Amino acid sequence: RLWIRDETSRDLVQSPGILVDVPVLRGDRISLSASAEAVWPVPGDRMGQVSLEPLTRLLGEAPCAAAMVKPELLQQLLTRPELRGDMRHAVRMITEVATDRVAVVFMDGDMGGRLAWGVMGSLGLSGLRVPTLLLATPAPDAAAAEGAIQRMLDSSNARYRAAFMVQPLSVQPATVHVLESADGKEWVDALAKSDRPACAVVDGWLLVSSNLSALQKLVQASAAGGSSAQVPSWVAPVDRPGAIALWMDLARTGKLARDAIATWSMAQMFLNSGNSQAVREQLNEAKTWIDAFAPFGSARAELGRQGEKVVLHMDLGLSGADGSDRIPKP
Predict the structure, then answer these.
(1) pTM greater than 0.70 (yes/no)
(2) Three-class SS state of 150
(3) How confident is the model at residue 126 (pLDDT cuts 50, 70, 90)?
């Protein structure tokens, strides 16, 4: 057990600081928790009111990383003065559609997307595979969810003087709405339809995908029905009462991170005629950290509020049900 204090901060001079407990510290498993007085706006813990079962059945083991965020946390983020510009707008747009909770999911492999726009296209790197980003929130009323999407578009069009719209596409058993523009002059119009962002309401959940191809596969899978008897590994770590809970498959996300570093390095070679020594050292250090974490297998974390304290729990390579290797309390 240890304490961390910022002696330079006048606001925290009377605070006991951050209390850190490390009950497990091994070469293959690490567990820690940190708590501090609630100096940050973190909402109180509560379990979600809507079952994850339909989303679990839909996604299966496709996620390589997932997080579950309470809308109350997003609302409190909007009160922070340091959240500005496009990031503030993005958070506000998510709160437009968020209901009980918001799932943030990354999918790789066959469910991944392609790097298909921006400067990467001009460098000939547009065919590279990247993870699909999927946002999901319960949508018991499909018409209300579609109305919220339209409000998001109206707000974005007003902010950026754009002409975004969605075009319905029938993908049984749902209607998928694909992003495009009314004038054909926006960035999305340069993409193949399969690479365009899209959304749909499936099994009572609003799904917003960074590309149509992955969403089509999910919708078609829902039509086929059936599910594995085994609960996917990402579900238990994110179905938690905290304001935000996340899970990562470190092997799969590590590969994605290494690929991203390689892609970024290639882009720098084209744009800046090579990387500097300092940049190469930073990239090598990042790769070292990625390789160091990969053997843990998985990571999970939860940030919540218990009474007047903000609490963070983190586990590397440790199942939530496995306490056999924990250090006994004194």
Answers:
(1) yes
(2) helix
(3) low
